[in-house]
From TrEMBL:
<dbReference type="GO" id="GO:0042803">
    <property type="term" value="F:protein homodimerization activity"/>
</dbReference>
<dbReference type="GO" id="GO:0006788">
    <property type="term" value="P:heme oxidation"/>
</dbReference>
<protein>
    <recommendedName>
        <fullName>Heme oxygenase 1</fullName>
        <ecNumber>1.14.14.18</ecNumber>
    </recommendedName>
</protein>
<dbReference type="GO" id="GO:0048471">
    <property type="term" value="C:perinuclear region of cytoplasm"/>
</dbReference>
<keyword id="KW-1133">Transmembrane helix</keyword>
<dbReference type="GO" id="GO:0030218">
    <property type="term" value="P:erythrocyte differentiation"/>
</dbReference>
<dbReference type="GO" id="GO:0005829">
    <property type="term" value="C:cytosol"/>
</dbReference>
<dbReference type="GO" id="GO:0005198">
    <property type="term" value="F:structural molecule activity"/>
</dbReference>
<comment type="similarity">
    <text>Belongs to the heme oxygenase family.</text>
</comment>
<dbReference type="GO" id="GO:0042167">
    <property type="term" value="P:heme catabolic process"/>
</dbReference>
<dbReference type="GO" id="GO:0046872">
    <property type="term" value="F:metal ion binding"/>
</dbReference>
<feature type="compositionally biased region" description="Basic and acidic residues">
    <location>
        <begin position="229"/>
        <end position="252"/>
    </location>
</feature>
<comment type="subunit">
    <text>Homodimer and higher order homooligomer. Oligomerization is crucial for its stability and function in the endoplasmic reticulum. Interacts with FLVCR2; this interaction is potentiated in the presence of heme.</text>
</comment>
<dbReference type="GO" id="GO:0071243">
    <property type="term" value="P:cellular response to arsenic-containing substance"/>
</dbReference>
<dbReference type="GO" id="GO:0048661">
    <property type="term" value="P:positive regulation of smooth muscle cell proliferation"/>
</dbReference>
<keyword id="KW-0812">Transmembrane</keyword>
<dbReference type="GO" id="GO:0072719">
    <property type="term" value="P:cellular response to cisplatin"/>
</dbReference>
Length: 285
């Protein structure tokens, strides 16, 4: 047609191909137990802290590699540090959730380590695939961030000021929908061989799977944590109950002490009475 090419998104465009290629894994991600619970407002402070710590590790690695390759032709068009980068927001959030010694205290679970290792591998060996990870994380954050922020605020009863939730705010993006359009157009401007495009699409799917595995592991850690809480609770109850038992026993022993002389006295009295009767009887004879 005569319409300018950049006006209409075409199926061959990278942005469309990415959306299509990750449709199935996106559905899979939405249905991960942790995120399903989260969407229902079922998230504990501990679970939320776990997610935020993992995000901190992930963005630290992602943005370190992005900075290294910001001039690479396969990344430069989508380099938007002011609008998108999350590292300083996450550092702020870490301080809020873990305090000043957060760097030593935050967890770094196995699946998060694998994701981070992949990002560093790409930075070193295959920088043309980094954009797949940027797409998955940044467009995802721009799409669901505001909803997730409100859910977390309500579920964890956080202040309205947004403390602890800097990650979810993009103060330099006035209109997320418009920004996503710009981002898609920029992705589509990247020159790419069909072979590289194929690898980028595969990497985007892989990046969703890394995210899914991170959430699955956090769910497991959370369940263990909840189990530990239940166990602790049960132990406390058991201890309380056995304390009750000890008290009960002491009580009955005390009662036994008080009561036991009574039958004994009764016996003595009865016996003395008998002896006295017999003695009187003898005396009378
Ligand atoms: C709580 C579960 C999730 C929900 C409810 C959700 C929902 C959505 C929605 C409503 C959109 C907007 C679609 C559009 O504008 O056309 C979207 C887009 C997107 N989401 Fe999610 N999402 C979830 C989890 C994830 C996860 C875990 C990732 C990856 C880490 C992710 C990555 C993306 C990406 C990359 C897009 C942009 C797709 C594109 O336009 O090419 N989402 N999501």
């Amino acid at each position: 047609g005569d319409r300018p090419r950049e006006r209409t998104l075409r199926k061959a465009d990278l942005s469309e191909a990415l959306k299509e290629a990750t449709k199935e894994v996106h559905t899979q991600a939405e249905n991960v137990e942790f995120l399903k619970n989260f969407q229902k407002g079922q998230v504990s402070r501990n679970g939320f802290k776990l997610v935020m710590s993992s995000l901190y590790h992930i963005y630290r690695a992602l943005e370190e590699e992005i900075e290294r390759h910001k001039a690479h032709p396969a990344y430069a068009p989508i380099y938007f540090p002011e609008e998108l980068h999350r590292l300083s927001a996450l550092q702020e959030d870490m301080e809020y959730w873990y305090g000043p010694r957060w760097r030593e205290e935050i967890p770094f679970p196995e699946a998060t380590r694998r994701y981070v290792a992949r990002l560093h591998h790409l930075g070193r060996e295959e920088p043309e695939l980094l954009m797949a990870h940027a797409y998955t994380r940044y467009l995802g954050d721009l799409s669901g961030g505001q909803i997730l922020k409100k859910i977390a605020q309500k579920a964890l009863r956080l202040p309205d000021g947004g403390e602890g939730l800097a990650f979810f705010s993009f103060p330099s993006v006035a209109n997320a929908t418009k920004f996503k359009q710009l981002y898609r157009a920029r992705m589509n401007s990247i020159e790419m061989s069909p072979e590289t495009k194929r690898r980028v699409l595969a990497e985007a799917r892989a990046s969703f799977l890394f995210n899914i595995q991170v959430f699955e592991e956090l769910q497991e850690l959370e369940s263990q944590n909840a189990e530990n809480d239940t166990l602790k609770q049960q132990k406390t109850e058991l201890r309380a109950r056995s304390n009750d038992k000890v008290q009960e026993n002491e009580e009955s022993r005390r009662q036994a002490h008080v009561l036991s002389p009574v039958p004994f006295l009764r016996w003595i009295l009865t016996f003395s009475f008998l002896v006295a009767t017999v003695a009187v009887g003898f005396y009378a004879m």
